[in-house]
Amino acid sequence: MTADPASATRSPSLPGPRRSPIDLSPTDTLRPPGGRAAWFAWSIGVSVYVLAVIHRTSLGVAGLDAAHRFGVGASALSTFSILQVLVYAAMQIPVGLLVDRFGPRRVLLAGVVLLSAGQLAFALSSSFGPALASRAVLGCGDAMTFISVLRIAARWFPAAKNPLVAQLTGLAGMGGNLVTTVVLAQALHTEGWTATFTATALLGFGVFALVALLLREAPTGSAAPAVPVEDRLPVLTQLRHSWREPGTRLGMWVHFTTQFPGNAFAMLWGLPYLVEGQGMTRGQAGGLLTLLVFSNMFFGLLFGRLLSKGPALRMPIVLSVIGATGLCWAVALAWPGGHPPLPLLVLLLVVMGSNGSASLVGLDYARSHNPAHRLGTASGIANMGGFIATMVTLFGIGVLLDAVSTGGGDGYSAGAYRLAFCWLYVPLAVGTAMILRLRRKAQQPAA
Questions:
Q1: Residue 415 burial by CB count (10 A; 0-12/13-18/19+): exposed, middle or buried?
Q2: What is the pLDDT of residues 61-113, one digit of tens each?
Q3: DSSP H or E segment with residue 214
Q4: For residue 303, what are the domain limits?
Q5: Does some domain include residue 226?
């Protein structure tokens, strides 16, 4: 296993007392070099994350097709994304532990295999049960990507650059979302279900080869000795130490509250809302969803630049994004007749584009408040938050749509979507309350 420069301990052969891994701080590391080699290693790792985002968001442009293919309603349709997100969230802590103990390269390779297998099974499924199982496999592979890429970045880049690299990782993922909304959506109409999803599954062969042949986890000669096996904390102890750190919990609730509105909209309910609820064509709806992607890219660059200057702006960014998202949805849902004008919808999608970038601030809280030997575990805990909120939102909207819908038509009315999307305020209120409660407990980490 390649050694981790971010988990260095004092060598026993050198003078001075030997410390337990529990005593390590985030500053007990060798300084990674950065440079072209670092960007190359990051780009190989991030290619897996881009592939994962393509697979993750593919159902967002295929929701109406899936409903017709499997003969299901809104509640059952939301089950696809709910199960996928549930598996993703449940795997975050196990994946974090795996990354800490076995390294990100091996975890990424396993992730590519599961992503490709799940998407291929989804392509060939013709009934609800097998298709549902395939999305669970896909969610498991998806869970192995983002934390692994962040750990690679921590090994290759200086700590001050990590917030920017994390935002760039999210921005690259939006490139995968762009492929979904532009290329995959068009392919579904021209090539059909099976051919489209089979082609995306086969992309995994190329990405697997890139990781297996070219990815190096750490710079040559710069990796410090890893924490000895006998010094590794038991799994439950590692989890307990990570969870007791207020910065980890604050990071989880930041991720929970900021990510889910844009995530739920992009993953499943955005296209049906715009087509059925707002009377747009698929082409018009796809154009607006593309705006969501470009907005996410813009805010990723903006927040990355701001956060690289220091941590003081983290909480103002988070609270501003939460407030703007809640306000825009309030105006849109309160608009008479449930049909907000196009400029308001454009503004809504631009604001939701900031959600994913703001959620990465939660991972920055977890990274900066934990020692190097448990970064994967802490990141996994924080990264669960947004996907738990997404799962709750996907299910809540689906259930409310079925509950408030009247008539036996194939779609749902603007009024039904209007009432169902009010569910957004439940996780938004809970998450905001927890952030305000924990922000005073999370002390500023030492420089």
A1: middle
A2: 787 788 888 888 777 887 887 788 889 888 988 998 888 888 899 999 999 99
A3: helix 193-214
A4: 33-214+234-438
A5: no
